[in-house]
Write a structure and sequence with these properties.
- It is a single chain.
- With 454 residues, the protein is α/β, with parallel strands linked by helices.
- It has 2 domains: 206 residues, Rossmann fold (3-Layer(aba) Sandwich), CATH 3.40.50; 188 residues, Dihydrodipicolinate Reductase, domain 2, CATH 3.30.360.10.
- The chain contains 16 helices and 15 strands.
- The strands form 2 sheets. A 9-stranded mixed beta sheet has the order 14-13-12-11-7-10-9-8-15. Strands 3-2-1-4-5-6 form a 6-stranded parallel beta sheet, with helices on both faces.
- Helix 3 runs parallel beside helix 4, helix 4 crosses helix 5 and helix 13 crosses helix 15.
- The longest helix has 20 residues.
- The two termini are 41 Å apart.
- The N terminus is likely disordered.
């Protein structure tokens, strides 16, 4: 069996050539004005909201469960992933989690049947799996695939009239960000919901803390310090039958063209909170430093293991952003805002200084809340669109990567107008990725002062 066929063969991939149905095409026109309850009255005569999941890794599996918990009358009906084994693992995990949620163990199978109805012909596998899912008869699309694919999938979903939950970050390069901003505008015109996976904006304690910051509890913000210092993450060893493309897709996190580098993929949460506090206005310019000091083995692709970036704003505010992924080092994930009247520790939900306050209220899961608010908006017609801040916070991460990779000080306008495309369309598991190893198996790494800004 070839390397290409071995990674996609499975019971879920027996209908990979599933044709686009007329019902999928009809949904484009029907959903153009947003999903009403009358639209969601399907052939069965109910108001079930049909969910499709693109990207069946850990985050996608979790998002599907959160979505199923969010609305009592929704079903997961379709799943898509590049690899069949990932899809099957995810589907099994979702069913087990849904079954555990049943208050009556004897009713567990019934609950699973009511919530998870993914037939084999709705298991889409391959590089075109996401588009096939979007073309199917789903109402809500969960975008949890590697960031490389999100701009194209978001555009396709909005064009098809689907409501969307899009994980962060939403792009890996400036052309992708510009595409997402355009898709967000199109979603507004169609009254389609677009909820972002920047989950801290849906956390009760963080929301209350940020509300007070924006109301002036710490005075005028002068400085923000963002830290995301963590340990190491997963890595999937190369297998003999994998092509280079398969290896990189399986280890997407470690390749900039797929993830954006970890200061985009992970640190975007921290950068988003800083942007939120500054009314989502972009910085004027940024400069920084970064490198690959510990994570030097070729199995870790071409990304860095530490970044430090200073974002400068027109009003004099500076955001100092630090992130690192190294084993055995000091860990800290925090957001500290300093103002003329005090200080806010956002994740601790605490304000000190002239105003002393600490949030002690309820703390429902922010991962559940973002989906609860999405489904409530669909049913009420009160549209939510997080697209602008999702795109701009992603762009902050990309700007940080640009200044670290090149060693240059770059303006926001330079960065967002960059023509560098890191996310070319890929047609085959046998195709060459945009980044290739040398004869020693090592990937080219960005060198500050040498790597050009494009």
């Amino acid at each position: 069996m070839s390397s290409r066929s071995s990674v996609v063969a499975s019971s879920c991939s027996t209908r990979r050539d599933f044709l686009k149905t007329t019902s999928g095409a009809a949904a484009v026109g029907a959903l153009a004005g947003g999903l009403s309850l009358s639209r969601s009255a399907h052939a069965a005569g109910d108001d079930v909201l049909k969910i499709g999941l693109i990207g069946c890794g850990g985050r996608g599996t979790g998002a599907a469960v959160n979505a199923l918990r969010a609305d009592k009358n929704c079903k997961l009906v379709a799943m898509a992933d590049a690899f069949a084994d990932r899809l099957e693992m995810s589907l099994t995990a979702i069913k087990k989690t849904v079954a555990k949620q049943s208050q009556d163990p004897t009713a567990a199978d019934r609950l699973v049947a009511e919530k998870v109805a993914v037939d084999p012909d709705r298991c889409f596998v391959g590089l075109d799996a996401g588009q096939k899912l979007i073309d199917s008869d789903v109402d809500v699309v969960l975008l949890c695939e590697p960031p490389h694919f999100r701009p194209a999938h978001l555009k396709a979903a909005i064009d098809a009239g689907k409501h969307v939950f899009a994980e962060k970050p939403v792009a890996v390069d400036a052309p992708g960000v510009r595409s997402v901003l355009a898709s967000a505008e199109e979603a507004k015109k169609k009254n389609l919901n677009l909820v972002a996976g920047l989950c801290w904006r849906y956390d009760a304690g963080v929301r209350e803390t940020m509300k007070r910051v924006l109301d002036g509890a710490i005075g005028d913000i002068t400085t923000i310090r963002e830290t995301f210092l963590t340990g190491t993450l997963w890595q999937r060893p190369r297998q003999p039958d994998w092509t280079e493309m398969v290896f990189q897709l399986r280890n997407w996190y470690y390749f900039t063209w797929l993830s954006g580098d970890f200061n985009v993929e992970q640190h975007v949460h921290s950068l988003d909170k800083a942007a939120w506090a500054l009314n989502d206005k972009p910085p004027v310019r940024a400069w920084g430093l970064g490198g690959r000091q510990v994570r030097t083995d070729p199995k870790f692709g071409d990304i860095y293991d530490h970044h430090a970036v200073v974002y400068e704003y027109a009003n004099g505010v500076q955001v100092f952003a630090y992130c690192r992924q190294m084993a055995g080092c000091f860990k800290d994930i925090s957001d500290q805002f300093f103002g003329t009247k005090g200080r806010a520790d956002i994740l601790k939900n605490r304000i000190t200084g002239q105003t002393r306050w600490h949030y002690t209220g309820p703390k429902p899961s922010m991962y559940d809340v973002e989906h609860q608010e999405l489904f409530a908006a669909i049913r009420s017609g009160k549209t939510i669109n997080n697209g602008d801040y999702l795109a701009r916070s992603t762009m902050m991460g990309i700007l940080g990567r640009m200044v670290d990779y090149t060693g240059q000080c770059l303006t926001w306008d330079q960065a967002i107008n960059s023509q560098q495309t890191l996310a070319p369309k890929i047609e085959s598991f046998d195709a060459e990725p945009p980044v290739l190893p040398d004869k020693d198996g090592r990937y080219p790494i960005a060198i500050p002062g040498v790597t050009p800004f494009v």
